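Hi V.,

You were right to ask for the full record rather than a summary. Here it is.
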Amino acid sequence: MNDLSPGGEAPDPRLGAALRFATELVAWVAAPWALWSHSVVLALVSVVVLIGLPTLLSTPGDKASAIVPVPGWVVILLVLLQFAAAAVASWFAWPPVVAVLVWVLVVAAVVAQGPRWRWLAGNPGTARS
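Predicted structure:
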């Protein structure tokens, strides 16, 4: 059991985690795809931001280990950035029918994130001894 907060570890039901991962995966593909024809540098930066930042920054108790511990609100903003990237970039990268499906995925992922985001919002992001 984790003693970071009265709630222990972040609640992250399998469905919520699966929808979040699927949406992140869409963002990781759609953003560079949409940006590539405009700027190769921006496309590569999008990959670094969308994959690198969430890998480095995490709230203790949310993942098995936190490389750089941050408050929960930072993790929420990073997830929202990925969701927004998926939703917006899909319209520029793929046909409209695919973009609509991505929007449905994003909405479902946002709804499923409620318990985790409530936990993250109340987490200061620092480990206690």
